[in-house]
Structure formats: C-alpha cells, structure tokens
Amino acid sequence: MFSLREFVKKGFLDAVGKMADYQIILNAAGWHEKGVLTEDDLSEINNAIENYTPEKEEEEN
Predict the structure, then answer these.
(1) Suppose 15 and one of 19, 25, 33, 47 were both cysteines; which one would form an S-S bond, judging by CB atoms 3.0 to 4.6 Å apart?
(2) Where is 33: in which H helix or E strand?
(3) Residue 60 pLDDT > 80, yes or no?
C-alpha cells in the first residue's frame, strides 16, 4: 500500500548531497507541520545530512 510519509521521506533522503541542506530542512519541516513526517523522520533526515560525505571523483591519469 502506498504511504505518503515513506514517499516524502525517501525523496528527502535521496536529495541529500544533491540539494542544498537548508532546502531539505525547510521542506521537511513543512511536511512535519502538515502532519506527514514525524520528529523521528526529521531526525533520520538530519542524520543523513550530517553523515553525508561527498564522493571524490577519481583523477584520471
């Protein structure tokens, strides 16, 4: 069964590293205010942002 909560959360988690952190945070807060995301979801998204390490492109010789 489709879950809007899981759909939105997955979108934010996938956006980490591709979208500015502040945009993810503000948008996720909006979904929390609407009652779609929980504080636990926001914590999970925040942890993903904090633990994100950009992949370094390998230098070609």
Answers:
(1) 19
(2) helix 21-33
(3) no
Give the global pTM.
Answer: 0.85
Q: What percent of the chain has pLDDT over 70?
A: 92
User: Is the residue at 61 inside a domain?
Assistant: no
State the total domains in the chain.
1
User: How far, in Å, CA of 50 to CA of 56, rounded?
Assistant: 17
37 secondary structure, DSSP code: S
Q: What are phi and psi of 3, to 5 degrees?
A: -125, 115
Average pLDDT over residues 2-14: 98
The reply to whether 42 falls in a domain is yes
Counting runs of H as helices and runs of E as strands, what totals does the chain give? 3, 0
Mean pLDDT of the chain: 93
How many Cβ atoms from other residues are within 10 Å of residue 48's Cβ?
17
